[in-house]
Design goal:
Elements (H helix, E strand, L loop, with lengths): L1 H29 L8 H24 L9 H20 L5
């Protein structure tokens, strides 16, 4: 059972890295540092967006409009950290 919890924690940590990569990539695309018309960049961008958008969309809908500032990745990262902390603090010690 602990191996399953370790796997869940690893997936949550990797998903956090994906969220950070998507946020940085969106800044680089917005400032025209990387070009979305490049096939490699577009394929990476669409695949990472497909991973993160299902969880970011409801958060964006719940947050008020902030004038072009998107803090939904930060909120999602905080929720991921909360879930990781709950697993490590309360669930992991009680599993044999």
């Amino acid at each position: 059972m602990r191996a399953l919890l370790d796997l869940v924690l690893l997936v949550l940590k990797l998903y956090g890295y994906v969220i950070i990569i998507v946020a940085i990539m969106s800044w680089l695309i917005a400032f025209n540092v990387i070009n979305i018309y490049n096939n490699v960049v577009r394929s990476i961008w669409t695949s990472l967006n497909a991973l993160t958008e299902p969880l970011l969309r409801p958060i964006r809908a719940a947050l008020p409009a902030m004038g072009g500032l998107d803090i939904s990745p930060i909120v999602l990262l905080l929720l991921l950290f909360l879930v990781e902390d709950i697993i490590v603090t309360y669930i992991y010690p009680n599993v044999f």
